[in-house]
């Protein structure tokens, strides 16, 4: 069981522009480790950074592709 601290951020807590920036970085080839480093440098905790990157990865994976099945 994971206890969530009330101040921990999740991907959905970010502004839309920030969500798009994280997704864009991952789509351009940034590694999970790089994005987490950027988030921690901006003041996010390691737990929050991990949650944000996981949420972004799930959002990218859930995006439908044109012509796909």
Keywords:
single chain, 69 residues, mainly alpha, globular
What does this structure look like?
It contains three helices and no strands. The chain is mainly alpha-helical. The chain has one domain. Helix 1 crosses helix 3 and helix 2 packs across helix 3. It is globular. The relative contact order is 0.20. The mean pLDDT is 78.
> In angstroms, what is the radius of gyration?
13 Å
Q: How many separate structural domains?
A: 1
Report the portion of residues in β strands: under 5%
Distance between the termini: 35 Å
**SS element count, helices:** 3
Shape: globular
What proportion of the residues is helical, as a percent range? 55-70%
Element layout with pairings:
Blueprint: H1 16-27, H2 32-41, H3 46-62
Helix pairs in contact: 1-3, 2-3
Structure, briefly:
With 69 residues, this protein is mainly alpha-helical.
């Amino acid at each position: 069981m994971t206890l969530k601290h009330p101040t921990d951020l999740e991907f959905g807590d970010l502004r839309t522009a920030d969500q798009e920036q994280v997704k864009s970085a991952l789509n351009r080839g940034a590694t999970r480790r790089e994005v987490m480093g950027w988030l921690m440098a901006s003041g996010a905790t390691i737990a929050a950074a991990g949650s944000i990157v996981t949420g972004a990865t799930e959002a990218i994976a859930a995006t439908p592709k044109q012509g796909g099945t």
